[in-house]
């Protein structure tokens, strides 16, 4: 019950409280020409029916005042693939895309536009989908999974001519992150890394990962060892267990997925890591709100992420080795 009130409060602040901000973004002129990695798409008129193939795209569509025709199921046991922070805005059940993209399923929704940023679509997918409606793929120079959250929101807003609303929401989130940084001057110079265990290997999220960038905006600094490994456009790197020291930092986030918690805890070199010995690890359980909110990195989820992650960081970095950071649920 407390969590439901928290979500409603955050959504109210985000969607209603921002009206006091004075933001006047440039209007979209149609027909709108959008250049992306697969070519050029033309949106002839202001879209009303929006398909999103973005793994978290339904959130931003809802945040800008539209009902998404589709929702891409990613993870979490939530109806329609919609997490709690977005549920109150959903009034029409979307088609849930679970697994491979089904062209016929998408065509049946009769969309005006198909948003395919952060979707991983291939050129063949793009060509097939373009027969249904204009497709907006990842812009040139951006990675499918590294395009920052605010740029994704602005691109959708440009397509929908909801630029002012998007900028209000972005400004509010940026102000919240700045407030966290200002309230925690002791975080300056403290390092962090974000890691997981997947398919038999340790993985670390790069300096181009949108979640890493989000944490950085609140005052922590990505571990230099991880930053040195970052390659443009790649959000994730695989490490051998012998390289575990690369991810040692003042704060170490572990994404827990399925049964990998036992695998993480049994890593031979983990007991020798400073983050482990000093109690500076933060375990993010698979269906926790903070895990989902960070992963989605949407206009609706990020206020939840801020509210949930800050207390965990405070506990991990308090300088007391006896402080136990609870599993984020």
UniProtKB/TrEMBL annotation:
Keyword Phosphoprotein: no
PROSITE patterns: FE_B12_PBP
InterPro entries recorded: ABC_transptr_periplasmic_BD (IPR002491), Bact_iron-sidero_bind (IPR051313)
Predominant place of localization: other
Keyword Cytoplasm: no
Sorted UniProt keywords: Ion transport, Iron, Iron transport, Signal, Transport
Fe/B12 periplasmic-binding domain span: 49-317
Pfam families associated with the record: Peripla_BP_2
Record's signal peptide: 1-25
Compartment(s) of residence: Cell envelope
GO biological process: iron coordination entity transport
Cellular component per GO, a single term: outer membrane-bounded periplasmic space
Family that this chain belongs to: Belongs to the bacterial solute-binding protein 8 family.
Name assigned to this protein: Iron complex transport system substrate-binding protein
Annotated source species: Marinomonas alcarazii
Lineage, broadest ranks: Bacteria, Pseudomonadati, Pseudomonadota, Gammaproteobacteria, Oceanospirillales
